[in-house]
Amino acid sequence: MCVVQVLTAHLLPPWQALGSLCSPWAAPRVGPLPPAPAMVRISKPKTFQAYLDDCHRRYSCAHCRAHLANHDDLISKSFQGSQGRAYLFNSVVNVGCGPAEERVLLTGLHAVADIHCENCKTTLGWKYEQAFESSQKYKEGKYIIELNHMIKDNGWD
């Protein structure tokens, strides 16, 4: 600090009196942050609620690459979604559920809840909450994800 700064330091708040000696994280900033230089790209890192093991084949959201399910949790590839083919999974991650409602599907009446990616909010498919026919009870608690909303990720050859 120069002599002028030392003499006037008692008139300024502590974070301004110390000038460059004070860390910007040590005290609150005064005023708005300066704009980032044009050549610096600031991006928000992708953070998901859950990450699946890297050594397993997995399925991810086609829109944001959030992990959705392990291949080991795949039950069937022979399902039909509202927009095309779909897979039935035993469990999924990074997925939010909407309210349950009754729908008449190809296999009868079911109570289902739409599911969406927690990262990008894209509707992916639905969760079977309740099946009203005894032959369909195996679907309860399982998840449908439409193929056009997921990609194969990690370990597929």
TrEMBL record:
Q: Name one GO molecular function term.
A: metal ion binding
Fetch the PANTHER family from UniProt: PROTEIN YIPPEE-LIKE CG15309-RELATED
Q: Which UniProt keywords apply?
A: Metal-binding, Signal, Zinc
Residues annotated as signal peptide: 1-17
Q: Which organism is it from?
A: Propithecus coquereli
How is this protein named in the record? Protein yippee-like
The UniProt entry's GO biological process terms, in alphabetical order, are: positive regulation of cellular senescence
Question: Where do the Yippee domain residues begin and end?
Answer: 57-154
Family statement = Belongs to the yippee family.
* Cross-referenced InterPro entries: Yippee, Yippee/Mis18/Cereblon, Yippee_fam
Please, which domain of life does this record's source organism belong to?
Eukaryota
